[in-house]
Specification:
The chain has a domain of about 160 residues. The chain is about 45% helix and about 5% strand. By secondary structure, it is mainly α.
């Protein structure tokens, strides 16, 4: 959307910062991330929740939250031996294990992830490191918000083909168990509130009381300046913690109607290429739908940080 000029309520400094530095940042990329999350929740809700729970468990074991026993996490009676097991491990270790267990597409055999420490910057949930891929970062933030009590992270344990087990009910022997997100958690995830671009602008908060010596005009001016200053800071922080890797798909924008993110999720977790191609044939070329499916899934996997970009050969060397 093109800028149509400075809105009446925007100060000059705020407007110039928006136009010259920030604008809408990585809107198209974030929208692609959102489509991937939607596909994950549609096809792989249990896989998402398993990762979030594992990350939450790690944070509790490592004492990354104060008084973890106060949080309704379901991790009761954690002994010292269990805490010892996670020393030296971090979110990347949890993700790599989850990835090795869940991701079945051979194209994504290598788990791509990294953590970069940042000085003087905190994400909204206190995370000092930039974690990639953005999907893992979104899950880490979700786990932290659950520990802070913002979201009810609880589980329902099922013996396959049965009703949920009660908290103190004995676990049947020789049965397969399945862990699912509780109703409140599932409703939260499906509501669209879980996003990949948390932070920055959403953290603007003004709590200012009028001083006894201030005129009404002086008070309004001071509050407006505070709001503008926090909005400027919010844009700066949102830009700093952005997940955008500045990658394009063969020089083209992503088609929001092309369902490439859905193609990736379905192949990523082991659905047969023939089945996916048949169900999505309207979005694939008629010549060789399966080959086109693989190509599009690889493109979006690279775009979203699940697959490393291939380095182009250096033509300057012989």
């Amino acid at each position: 959307m093109a800028d149509k000029g400075q809105p009446d309520r925007w100060g000059d400094k705020l407007w110039r910062a928006y136009v010259d530095e920030y604008k809408e940042a990585d809107r198209d990329y974030v929208e692609s991330c959102q489509r991937f999350l939607s596909a994950m929740l549609h096809y792989q809700m249990d896989a998402v929740f398993t990762l979030v729970r594992a990350l939450t468990h790690l944070m509790v074991l490592k004492g990354e939250v104060e008084n973890p026993e106060d949080y309704n996490t379901g991790f009761d009676d954690i002994d010292d031996a269990e805490k010892e097991k996670v020393q030296g491990k971090d979110e990347l270790d949890v993700y790599r294990y989850w990835y090795s267990e869940r991701v079945k597409w051979k194209v994504l055999e290598e788990c791509v992830c990294k953590k970069t420490e940042r000085k003087g910057l905190l994400s909204p949930m206190g995370n000092k490191a930039k974690i990639e891929p953005w999907f893992l970062s979104a899950c880490v933030d979700l786990a932290r918000r659950g520990l802070h009590g913002d979201i009810p992270i609880h589980v329902e344990v099922y013996a396959v083909d049965s009703l949920p087990l009660e908290p103190n009910e004995p676990i049947p022997e020789d049965v397969d168990l399945m862990v699912k997100a509780g109703d409140l958690m599932e409703r939260y995830l499906r509501s669209g509130a879980w996003r990949s671009d948390e932070g920055g602008m959403e953290e603007v908060s003004i709590n200012s009381e009028r001083h006894s010596y201030e005129s009404r005009k002086d008070y309004v001016n001071r509050v407006l300046e505070l709001v503008e200053a926090q909005l400027l800071h919010g844009m700066e922080q949102a830009q700093t913690i952005t997940h955008n890797p500045k990658v394009t798909i063969q020089g083209r924008k992503i088609d929001p109607e092309g369902r490439q993110e859905e193609m990736l999720v379905r192949l990523m977790f082991g659905e047969q290429r023939k089945v996916v191609a048949e169900s999505m044939k309207d979005y694939l070329s008629e010549g060789d739908p399966e080959r086109e499916l693989s190509r599009k899934a690889k493109q979006i996997a690279q775009h979203l940080g699940f697959l490393l970009q291939k380095k182009r050969p250096d033509k300057s060397t012989g």
